[in-house]
Design goal:
The chain is an alpha/beta fold. It has helices at about 5-15, 25-35, 55-65, 95-115, 125-135, 175, 180-190, 205-220, 260-280, 290-295, 320-335, 350-360, 380-390, 400-415, 430-440, and strands spanning about 45-50, 70-75, 85-90, 90-95, 140-145, 160-165, 195-200, 220-225, 230-235, 240-245, 250-255, 305-310, 310-315, 340-345, 365-370, 395, 420-425. The longest helix is centred in the N-terminal third of the chain and has 20 residues, at about 95-115.
Length: about 450
């Protein structure tokens, strides 16, 4: 086979069923992985589902496990800038040559499985299979795997989770997962299986009832934020926050988390409980110095990330109302801007009005634009919603994201004599990734 490049692999994947659409079946990926020798069964898996906070929580679990000397593989989605970010070994994206080599080994089996199924394997199914193969070949001591969409029918759920984590559940992907929080929670609950330890973040009542019903149905062990574990205290610190956490095995004081927002503190204690559950079933306290070291090393690109100073430009991947409300609360608490200019581009299948209504109280001016994604919401439609929410005098429209960034940064520079002026870029993971690439060169 002629050598391929990462661009070639991305083009081959892009020709498949897109990851933004869900065909409710895991038959195809189960067929593929069986042909490959079931690599998903070769290493223990911590599976992370939920509506918001999955990627940050997965990154924290990864960092904590590595602080205890384990070799960790991590699979998350979507990526911000490079597709290789999705599959990491020891905290680093796999090299492009390794990514390409793994795909080339997989390719003949893709053709075989495609030919004997009604529908071909999807973009996400192929990447998920590739991740499980990479983790088995490495090999890793544990794989931390983020669910793509839902849970029950998600390709990642072919693995039997040793620890099944569910971050906060809210409305998103209603076309595929259901119109109510309870219905969506029912899909997320599918990752909780017999012999799993279910670690549940604080949930709306209707989601909590569904998730707890699943743990009883399959006789799984359960640990709940607010009952078995929780955040005891948090104070602002330079570059993040200082936490006091109650885990499953004891209390952990003076934990520095270099991320902003109460939602990240919640993600942190969920990650801690998941690691306690994995390492010892939550029956004993972990070494506090190793826990501190793990959290101190955490990064979460594209999550209230400062990508430029003078003026300060923040990038955040919030893409639904729940995420936008958490972002707004963190901005109010952790940053002291006299003025904040927002640059927002959202995808067509998202609740643009809900996102803008959540951000309206913290933004003095809004610049609406389009990301480079073919799924981006029509700019005329987004502008109409923005004017309705913010008023015409607070809204500017720019045809492209580079133009929007230039406009917002120039406006922030002009207003700098009035105090601290910042720029926030948000609306989707694609928007955050595009902005990082443009602003960081």
């Amino acid at each position: 086979m002629e050598p391929l490049s990462t661009v070639d692999v991305e083009a081959a994947l892009a020709a498949r069923w897109p990851e933004s659409q869900l065909d409710p079946s895991i038959d195809r990926i189960r067929d593929l992985l069986h042909v490959l020798g079931d690599p998903q069964a070769a290493v223990p898996v911590v599976l992370v589902a939920g509506t918001n906070g999955k990627t940050s929580t997965a990154r924290m679990i990864d960092a904590l496990l590595r602080s205890f000397g384990l070799r960790v593989g991590r699979y998350t989605s979507p990526h911000l800038e490079s597709i290789t970010e999705r599959i990491t070994l020891e905290g680093e994206p796999i090299p492009e040559e390794k990514f390409v080599a793994a795909y080339q080994e997989l390719a003949p089996f893709l053709e075989l499985v495609d030919a004997r199924n009604e529908h071909s394997l999807s973009y996400f199914e192929v990447l998920t299979a590739l991740a499980y193969v990479v983790f088995a070949d490495a090999p890793v001591d544990v794989a931390v795997v983020e669910v793509g969409m839902g849970g029950t029918w998600d390709a990642t759920n072919v693995a039997q989770a040793v620890v099944a984590v569910v971050t906060p559940v809210s409305l998103d992907h209603q076309a595929y997962l259901g119109d109510t929080v309870a219905e969506i929670a029912g899909e997320k609950a599918g990752i909780i299986k017999p012999e799993s330890i279910a670690v549940l973040a604080q949930q709306p009542l209707e989601a909590a009832e569904v998730l707890l019903r699943q743990t009883v149905l399959v006789d799984a062990t359960v640990a709940r934020e607010g009952l078995e574990f929780g955040v005891l205290a948090r104070t602002l610190a330079v570059g993040g926050q200082l936490l006091q956490l109650r885990g499953l095995g004891g209390e952990y004081e003076d934990v520095l988390l270099p991320l902003h927002g109460a939602h990240q503190a919640g993600n942190a204690v969920v990650a801690l409980a998941a690691v306690e559950a994995f390492l010892g079933g939550g029956r004993g306290q972990l070494d506090v110095n190793q826990v501190r070291a793990g959290f101190a090393s955490v990064t979460s690109p594209g999550r209230l990330e400062v990508v430029r100073r003078g003026p300060t430009v923040l990038v955040d991947a919030a893409h639904n109302p729940h995420g936008a409300r958490a972002l707004a609360a963190a901005l109010t608490e952790d940053f002291a801007f006299d003025q904040l200019i927002g640059v927002v581009a959202v995808l067509a299948d998202k609740d643009a009005r809900g996102v803008l209504e959540a951000l309206e109280p913290v933004l003095d001016q809004l610049v609406v634009t389009r990301s480079l994604s073919p799924r981006a919401l029509d700019l005329t439609e987004l502008a109409a919603v923005a004017v309705d929410v913010f008023g015409a005098d607070r809204v500017e429209v720019c045809a492209t994201l580079p133009d929007a960034l230039d406009f917002a940064i120039a406006r922030a520079d002009e207003a700098s004599h009035l105090g601290s002026v910042g720029v926030l870029v948000t609306g989707s993971v694609v928007t955050a990734g595009d902005a990082r690439r443009l602003l960081k060169g």
